[in-house]
User: Fold this.
Amino acid sequence: DTCPRPVSPGFIEVYEEEALVKCLGYQLYKEFVNNIDISKSTLIKEDSDLKWDKLLNGTEYTNQSGELVFWKGIRWKSRDTYNKSFLADYVYYNYEKSNDDDRVGIGNVKQEGNNSTVVSKTPKVIAAWRRFFAAVQGGGIEPSFVQNKHGVGIDWYGSNNQKTLYGFINDMNNISANTYPNFKPHSFYNANQFGI
Assistant:
Protein backbone atom coordinates (compact mmCIF):
# COMPACT_ATOMS: atom_id res chain seq x y z
CA ASP A 1 0.00 0.00 0.00
CA THR A 2 1.68 3.22 -1.16
CA CYS A 3 -1.13 5.62 -0.15
CA PRO A 4 -0.32 7.97 2.70
CA ARG A 5 -1.97 7.18 6.00
CA PRO A 6 -4.95 9.39 6.85
CA VAL A 7 -4.43 11.93 9.61
CA SER A 8 -6.14 10.73 12.74
CA PRO A 9 -8.15 13.22 14.83
CA GLY A 10 -5.88 12.42 17.78
CA PHE A 11 -2.85 13.50 15.74
CA ILE A 12 -4.55 16.78 14.87
CA GLU A 13 -5.51 17.47 18.49
CA VAL A 14 -1.99 16.74 19.75
CA TYR A 15 -0.33 19.16 17.34
CA GLU A 16 -2.99 21.87 17.62
CA GLU A 17 -2.48 21.84 21.38
CA GLU A 18 1.31 21.80 21.01
CA ALA A 19 1.21 24.81 18.67
CA LEU A 20 -1.10 26.80 20.94
CA VAL A 21 0.93 26.01 24.06
CA LYS A 22 4.11 27.12 22.29
CA CYS A 23 2.49 30.25 20.83
CA LEU A 24 0.66 31.42 23.96
CA GLY A 25 2.45 29.78 26.85
CA TYR A 26 0.77 27.10 28.96
CA GLN A 27 -1.14 29.37 31.36
CA LEU A 28 -2.58 31.61 28.61
CA TYR A 29 -3.40 28.49 26.58
CA LYS A 30 -5.40 27.08 29.52
CA GLU A 31 -7.26 30.38 29.95
CA PHE A 32 -8.02 30.44 26.22
CA VAL A 33 -9.38 26.87 25.98
CA ASN A 34 -11.47 27.41 29.12
CA ASN A 35 -13.36 30.07 27.12
CA ILE A 36 -14.09 27.81 24.13
CA ASP A 37 -17.61 26.51 23.46
CA ILE A 38 -17.80 24.44 20.27
CA SER A 39 -21.61 24.74 20.19
CA LYS A 40 -21.33 28.48 19.44
CA SER A 41 -20.66 29.85 15.95
CA THR A 42 -17.88 32.03 17.35
CA LEU A 43 -16.58 29.03 19.37
CA ILE A 44 -16.42 31.36 22.38
CA LYS A 45 -18.62 31.07 25.49
CA GLU A 46 -21.31 33.76 25.69
CA ASP A 47 -20.14 35.08 29.07
CA SER A 48 -16.46 35.25 28.05
CA ASP A 49 -14.47 38.45 27.79
CA LEU A 50 -14.37 39.87 24.24
CA LYS A 51 -10.57 39.44 24.19
CA TRP A 52 -10.99 35.67 23.59
CA ASP A 53 -13.19 36.25 20.55
CA LYS A 54 -10.65 38.75 19.20
CA LEU A 55 -7.81 36.27 19.73
CA LEU A 56 -9.63 33.41 17.99
CA ASN A 57 -11.66 35.18 15.30
CA GLY A 58 -9.60 38.29 14.62
CA THR A 59 -10.28 41.99 14.94
CA GLU A 60 -9.55 45.40 13.50
CA TYR A 61 -8.19 47.98 15.92
CA THR A 62 -6.19 51.17 16.23
CA ASN A 63 -2.72 50.59 17.64
CA GLN A 64 -0.81 52.97 19.92
CA SER A 65 0.65 54.76 16.90
CA GLY A 66 -2.86 55.62 15.70
CA GLU A 67 -2.74 53.21 12.74
CA LEU A 68 -5.74 51.10 11.82
CA VAL A 69 -4.45 47.52 11.79
CA PHE A 70 -5.98 44.05 11.79
CA TRP A 71 -5.32 40.61 13.19
CA LYS A 72 -6.84 37.78 11.11
CA GLY A 73 -7.28 35.53 14.12
CA ILE A 74 -6.17 32.04 15.01
CA ARG A 75 -8.82 31.00 12.51
CA TRP A 76 -10.12 33.14 9.68
CA LYS A 77 -12.66 33.17 6.93
CA SER A 78 -12.37 32.35 3.28
CA ARG A 79 -15.59 32.99 1.35
CA ASP A 80 -17.57 33.78 4.53
CA THR A 81 -16.68 30.48 6.21
CA TYR A 82 -14.11 29.92 8.93
CA ASN A 83 -11.86 27.40 7.20
CA LYS A 84 -8.30 28.73 7.54
CA SER A 85 -5.85 28.63 10.44
CA PHE A 86 -2.12 28.68 11.00
CA LEU A 87 -2.75 25.59 13.16
CA ALA A 88 -3.48 23.59 9.99
CA ASP A 89 -0.04 24.47 8.62
CA TYR A 90 1.60 23.40 11.90
CA VAL A 91 -0.30 20.09 11.91
CA TYR A 92 0.50 19.45 8.23
CA TYR A 93 4.21 20.16 8.76
CA ASN A 94 4.37 17.73 11.67
CA TYR A 95 2.28 15.12 9.85
CA GLU A 96 4.65 15.09 6.89
CA LYS A 97 7.65 15.01 9.24
CA SER A 98 6.24 11.98 11.05
CA ASN A 99 5.10 10.32 7.82
CA ASP A 100 8.48 10.52 6.05
CA ASP A 101 9.42 6.91 6.78
CA ASP A 102 7.35 3.80 7.32
CA ARG A 103 8.04 1.39 10.15
CA VAL A 104 8.10 -2.28 9.16
CA GLY A 105 9.38 -5.45 10.80
CA ILE A 106 12.96 -4.75 9.76
CA GLY A 107 12.98 -1.04 10.72
CA ASN A 108 12.16 2.21 8.93
CA VAL A 109 11.96 2.24 5.14
CA LYS A 110 11.13 4.70 2.40
CA GLN A 111 8.60 3.45 -0.11
CA GLU A 112 9.51 3.20 -3.76
CA GLY A 113 6.94 2.81 -6.51
CA ASN A 114 7.32 0.93 -9.79
CA ASN A 115 6.91 3.00 -12.96
CA SER A 116 6.88 6.20 -10.95
CA THR A 117 9.16 9.02 -10.02
CA VAL A 118 9.79 9.90 -6.42
CA VAL A 119 9.36 13.64 -5.93
CA SER A 120 10.21 15.70 -2.91
CA LYS A 121 7.45 16.92 -0.66
CA THR A 122 9.91 19.37 0.88
CA PRO A 123 8.68 22.48 -1.01
CA LYS A 124 5.06 21.97 0.18
CA VAL A 125 6.14 21.19 3.74
CA ILE A 126 8.44 24.22 3.92
CA ALA A 127 5.72 26.45 2.41
CA ALA A 128 3.35 25.32 5.20
CA TRP A 129 5.98 26.04 7.86
CA ARG A 130 6.72 29.47 6.41
CA ARG A 131 2.99 30.36 6.40
CA PHE A 132 2.78 29.26 10.05
CA PHE A 133 5.90 31.24 10.95
CA ALA A 134 4.65 34.38 9.15
CA ALA A 135 1.20 34.23 10.82
CA VAL A 136 2.55 33.65 14.32
CA GLN A 137 5.88 35.39 14.61
CA GLY A 138 6.35 37.33 11.43
CA GLY A 139 9.02 37.75 8.89
CA GLY A 140 9.43 39.34 5.52
CA ILE A 141 7.11 42.33 5.18
CA GLU A 142 5.41 41.92 8.57
CA PRO A 143 6.68 42.99 11.98
CA SER A 144 8.42 40.05 13.55
CA PHE A 145 8.78 38.75 17.08
CA VAL A 146 12.45 38.46 17.98
CA GLN A 147 14.17 36.76 20.87
CA ASN A 148 17.88 36.75 21.56
CA LYS A 149 20.27 36.82 24.51
CA HIS A 150 19.25 40.43 25.21
CA GLY A 151 15.51 39.73 25.55
CA VAL A 152 12.36 39.68 23.46
CA GLY A 153 10.67 42.27 21.31
CA ILE A 154 9.02 43.18 18.05
CA ASP A 155 11.09 44.16 15.01
CA TRP A 156 9.11 46.85 13.18
CA TYR A 157 11.17 46.99 10.00
CA GLY A 158 8.10 46.94 7.80
CA SER A 159 4.34 46.62 8.00
CA ASN A 160 1.31 46.01 5.85
CA ASN A 161 -1.09 46.69 8.75
CA GLN A 162 -1.78 42.97 9.16
CA LYS A 163 -0.59 41.81 12.55
CA THR A 164 1.01 38.53 13.49
CA LEU A 165 -0.23 36.65 16.54
CA TYR A 166 2.71 37.92 18.59
CA GLY A 167 2.29 41.46 17.25
CA PHE A 168 -1.43 41.45 18.09
CA ILE A 169 -0.89 40.22 21.65
CA ASN A 170 1.97 42.69 22.13
CA ASP A 171 -0.28 45.55 20.92
CA MET A 172 -3.14 44.48 23.20
CA ASN A 173 -0.79 44.31 26.19
CA ASN A 174 0.64 47.74 25.32
CA ILE A 175 -2.88 49.18 25.22
CA SER A 176 -3.83 47.44 28.48
CA ALA A 177 -1.20 45.43 30.36
CA ASN A 178 -3.77 42.99 31.74
CA THR A 179 -5.26 41.91 28.39
CA TYR A 180 -3.11 38.79 27.98
CA PRO A 181 -0.85 39.02 31.05
CA ASN A 182 0.28 35.38 30.96
CA PHE A 183 1.67 35.51 27.42
CA LYS A 184 4.87 33.43 27.27
CA PRO A 185 5.69 32.95 23.57
CA HIS A 186 8.06 30.42 22.08
CA SER A 187 10.63 31.69 19.59
CA PHE A 188 10.30 29.75 16.33
CA TYR A 189 12.92 29.61 13.61
CA ASN A 190 11.99 29.94 9.98
CA ALA A 191 13.04 27.23 7.54
CA ASN A 192 13.84 26.76 3.90
CA GLN A 193 14.13 23.70 1.71
CA PHE A 194 17.91 23.71 2.04
CA GLY A 195 17.78 23.19 5.80
CA ILE A 196 19.33 26.57 6.63
